[in-house]
Amino acid sequence: MQELEKIWMNGELVPWKEAKIHVLTHALHYGTAVFEGIRCYKTNTGPAVFRLKDHLKRLYDSAHIVRMTIPYPPEELEKGVIDIIKANGVEECYIRPIVFRGYGEMGVDPSSCGVDCVIAVWCWGAYMGEKGIKEGVRAKISSYTRTYINSGSPRAKSSANYLNSSLAKIEAKDLGYDEAILLDINGFLSEGSGENIFYVKDGVIFTPHPYSILLGITRDTVIKIARKLGMEVKETLCTRDDLYLADEAFFTGTAAEITPIAEVDGRKIGTGKRGEITHLLQEVFFRVVRGEEPDYESWLTKLR
């Protein structure tokens, strides 16, 4: 990771190397943290953060689900995001706000531990590489099942949920694949280790029903763009066979953006290359985030 100059920590801008926490921080031991992944893009009118208010709304929703109160109003975190980008002098970056139970009492009960809030930014290109964006990636249906809705809420973007993701990702990489795809407890498609998933069949775009997934901001962006382009999008129960027989498939996420899926479990998806609909959605998406589509101007928070 390329280190920058500053990190926003509990309302203060501190030097990167001094942004530290105690080794007995509750979240480090028990996963009591929620976070967001946001991107800032370079536009013709300067840097702009994509869907900042929507990301922060999800952060506060996640905290509410896990019984944690963020000690700052959304407006202050929004200002913190802008301040830390400016302080580091970057035009494009990945933004990571994280809210966590801090140092206090040990034990599963977090109620006596305070809540800390940190915002860091760093330069991060395509999550699965530029080649992946253009040519697609190889994915594997994981042996790990996505966390059950009543055992760890998928609606909360919590650090605890991501152990499930990490195990699936490690397994996929060990088997020679780029990414994992997890099924839910009933065997239906859920999501990737850090992305939502879509596939295309006969011109219709399908994506898993919201009940077993994190409601991705990029997922929502793609659905809105596709429908505005006149495409049909269905949120439904999907099987691995549906995916195997798809004409196209792709992952979406703030880090992954829109990444085509070329192969699943050794089976080519369609032609095994980026499909036409995927390519079109990518083109429009990247115009949107770079401020080249006036209809979506409200999604951009400009730094100046």
Describe the structure.
With 304 residues, this protein is α+β, with helices and mostly antiparallel strands. It has two domains: 6-122, D-amino Acid Aminotransferase, Chain A, domain 1, CATH 3.30.470; 129-289, D-amino Acid Aminotransferase, Chain A, domain 2, CATH 3.20.10. Helix content is 28%, strand content 30%. The chain is built from eight helices and 17 strands. It has helices spanning 26-30, 52-65, 74-88, 129-135, 162-174, 217-228, 240-244, 276-289, and strands at residues 6-9, 12-15, 33-35, 38-43, 46-50, 93-101, 115-122, 137-145, 179-183, 189-192, 196-201, 204-208, 233-236, 248-253, 257-264, 267-268, 300-302. The strands form two sheets. Strands 8, 9, 10, 11, 12, 13, 14, 15 and 16 form a nine-stranded mixed beta sheet that branches. Strand 9 and strand 10 (189-192) form a beta hairpin. The longest helix is centred in the N-terminal third of the chain and has 15 residues, at 74-88. The model has no long low-confidence stretch (mean pLDDT 96).
